Amino acid sequence: MFVATTGGHLEQLANLAARIPASAGELWVTHANAQSRSLLSGRDVEFVPYVRVRNLPDVVRCLPSAHRLWRRYDITRVVSTGSGIALGYLPYLAARGVECHYIESAARVAAPSVTGRLLQRVPRVRRYTQYPHWAGSRWSFTGSVFDSYRAEATPRARADVLRAVVTVGTAAEFPFRRLISRLVPLLGPGGAVTAATGLPVEVLWQTGCTPTDGLPIDAVPFLPAVELGAALAAADIVVSHAGTGSALAALAAGRFPVLATRRAALGEAGDDHQGELADELVRRGLAARCEPETLTAADLVASMDTVVRSAHPPAFELAS
């Protein structure tokens, strides 16, 4: 069983699952939205109610489903990248003797999340960090979702029209209007990017739960993973919130994203871990980081001349 909430957690799990030695069969447990239906098309999936951030009643409501699926499918191993949904399944299944593995999100560069800290207290749950500097007796390190990506400076030929993708992920609770509002005068018709390049810009605005009333854009709240991936691959400019799933989607499409960090104090995220992730990707040379208020056309144009290549990553070995 593979268990994850939608968004970056599910994107990471799909990436890592391909690197985990296969068993006889697999079942995916997540929430239903455009991303999950597209990403998991053709697989056995159980869609379950959404587990909200730090919501204990939602976690408790997972238990009947965990019991039912354990009995129905004879689950022998479960792997999760969180977040709160992991608390609804792993402790129960561990108590039933199922082999349980929790892989902390790559967004957690410095220390485990609340989910990770709680699972440290649960017997028989094996835990993994994606960063060797905080591995130890409680957390193993066997690799990262970013292992297979490398950036190259490669100037791209300009077409008659520049294509841009702006994506703020699939979070249901945290809007990011601050980023969208800043990008409108930069990417919009006759905006700063057009002034800098002499080319018109076509923009795909994937806005999630962000309200866009009053903004002169054609917003698309959610896109199937296949459609978003195709748009990213065709884009000259990619601007994203610094979420793991959105960053991974851009890298997988060969794009060098400009990452804007959300702030918890402004109601844009549950905490400020996005800054740590953005800094890590900058350190790896895989992205540029910006704050929405200081983002310029020059930042966007500069990102166009770097591409990202991927290679076959090593296996992600689970502890026995």
UniProtKB/TrEMBL annotation:
GO molecular function, one term: hexosyltransferase activity
Domain Glycosyl transferase family 28 C-terminal: 165-297
Pfam families, A to Z: Glyco_tran_28_C
SUPFAM superfamilies per the UniProt record, alphabetical: UDP-Glycosyltransferase/glycogen phosphorylase
InterPro entries: Glyco_trans_28_C
Name of protein: Glycosyltransferase family 28
